């Protein structure tokens, strides 16, 4: 058994694709229309590991999704995490692109972390192993 | 918050009623400071002011190995807020916590002022 995919719940798949590729730097892997709802099976991968785990940009249309996402954001909780080599450098790069951070880089001992808003209703933590 | 404003702006202890309220406000501050986790929260907010609940929890867990639950930290923040030592600020969908040291400034005046008079 392997972990091949994980999800973020987004309120607009096209906007999410733009942010996750043009801003974060991931690349599109799959983009398949599903049914007649206008939804897509839309995944991105890291260019550093194109055959690795995919990230599904999944519509957050379920009524439970928004209250759950809002409650997490209210407390500053990132549900999803990505690893980076240099959290300070990535923070500077993303901030230069207009990304809003709720938590600037902080050294937590074994790791350094920062948290930003993905503009799709989620907070994301980036983490550097020290 | 009544206690906080009194602590922040009240200088004399001439009026008895005012003195009562002032003492109540002080008691909140001393009670808030009596807990080591709450003092750590203030340490971390003094290091970086304006943190989400998640960041405060992360710092306590990762830096200080304090395994308190998010609910427990949230309650500690309520006590600190009640004593006027922490304020929270909403910015869009986010909520940030800030340290306010003004209640501390008045805390020891009554003893330090006496020292001043005697010297």
From TrEMBL, chain A:
Superkingdom of source: Bacteria
InterPro entries in the cross-refs: Glyas_Bleomycin-R_OHBP_Dase (IPR029068), Glyas_Fos-R_dOase_dom (IPR004360), VOC_core (IPR037523)
Domain (VOC): residue spans on this chain: 2-129
Pfam families in alphabetical order: Glyoxalase
Annotated SUPFAM superfamilies: Glyoxalase/Bleomycin resistance protein/Dihydroxybiphenyl dioxygenase
PANTHER family on file: GLYOXALASE/BLEOMYCIN RESISTANCE PROTEIN/DIOXYGENASE, GLYOXALASE_BLEOMYCIN RESISTANCE PROTEIN_DIOXYGENASE
Stated name of the protein: VOC family protein
Organism listed in the record: Actinoplanes aureus
Taxonomic lineage of the native organism: Bacteria, Bacillati, Actinomycetota, Actinomycetes, Micromonosporales
